[in-house]
Amino acid sequence: MMKAPQPEVVATASRQNPGETLRQAREQKGLSLSQVAGQLNLTENSLRQLENGAFDKLPGHTFSRGYIRAYAKLMGLDQAELVNSFDHFTGTNASGSTVQSLGRVAEPVRLSRNVLRIVSLLLLALLIGFGYFWWQEHSARTPETAGLSLEHVEVESADGTTEIHTLDEPEDQAVIEAQKEGEQAPAEVSPEVAAQAEGAPPVASEGAQVLAAPAQGTPAAPQQPVTAAPAGTAPAPAPGTAPAVPATASPAAPPAPSEPAAAPVVAGEGQGVVKVQFVADCWTQVTDANGKVLVSALKRKGDSLELAGKAPLELRLGFARGAQVSYNGQPVDVTPFVRGETARLKVGQ
């Protein structure tokens, strides 16, 4: 009668909770629940349920069996023995199941993170491609629009008129416009000059006026034969005619005084004198340091220009080889400033 209860004791011992064995091993090693949970990549709640034998609250016996193996390996215990103890405790059959030993429970794949990474890479590639094509198009348009963005500046010339100039106006275009204006200038005569020309009487010499007066005042006398008068007698005057007045030589008119030479231009304080002698037609513009246009016109061959202005003075020559420049009496070489047929330079800097 004393041997009957032995099968129940053996059955009870065989169904011992493997989690309790693992908990005791953990406490012997002095490890906390959170430390072991971190090494196994489990939550503390899941590890606590495993140690308490609440395997029904874990995600399936297959995962629970894997947790037992990983936990036993971490504690240095026999994995197979604890897995068998788990099977007996839960009443499951491990035959046919292949549960691999896990040193660390793999982290579940997070599909959302991979998708986000792929989308981010695609957006970055699109952004780089868009930036590249925009840069190519912008670089191609820059030379085309450079000539259209000319700034204008209004300057007041010496005669008080306001002129508008483009800062980037080509020199050749300015020369062509100036030459056209010079060709049209002789054909355009102001009404005042025309009236003065019509009202001015023709100028005749004094001798011509003296001879023309009797011709217009008396009718022409008929020609009569001239007879030689005896010596000592004077011929009788023809009837109807006035006695001829002997012509007397008028005194020679004094020569007209020559025009006095133009007074040299005197430069004031802070000013300089620029002189240009033209050996060919050349459009010329001179601007002082304040931006005031002192002259802007087409000069003809043989003309000369001399003026003073606040230094430095800027010269723009439409035909550089047709102008000889000097500043304050010193010749200036414009060769280094020639571009094509034009030149642009500053003197008095």
From TrEMBL:
Location of region: Disordered: 1-21, 179-263
One MF annotation (Gene Ontology) recorded for this entry: DNA-binding transcription factor activity
One BP annotation, GO: DNA-templated transcription initiation
Biased composition annotated in UniProt, kind: Low complexity: 212-251
SMART domains: HTH_XRE
Entry-linked InterPro entries: Bact_Cytoskel_RodZ (IPR050400), Cro/C1-type_HTH (IPR001387), Lambda_DNA-bd_dom_sf (IPR010982), RNA_pol_sigma70 (IPR000943), RodZ-like_C (IPR025194)
Cited Pfam families: HTH_25, RodZ_C
SUPFAM superfamilies given in the database record: lambda repressor-like DNA-binding domains
Spans through the membrane: 114-135
Protein keywords: Membrane, Transmembrane, Transmembrane helix
UniProt cross-references to PROSITE patterns, sorted A to Z: HTH_CROC1 (PS50943), SIGMA70_2 (PS00716)
Protein name as catalogued: Cytoskeleton protein RodZ
Source species of the chain: Pseudomonas aeruginosa
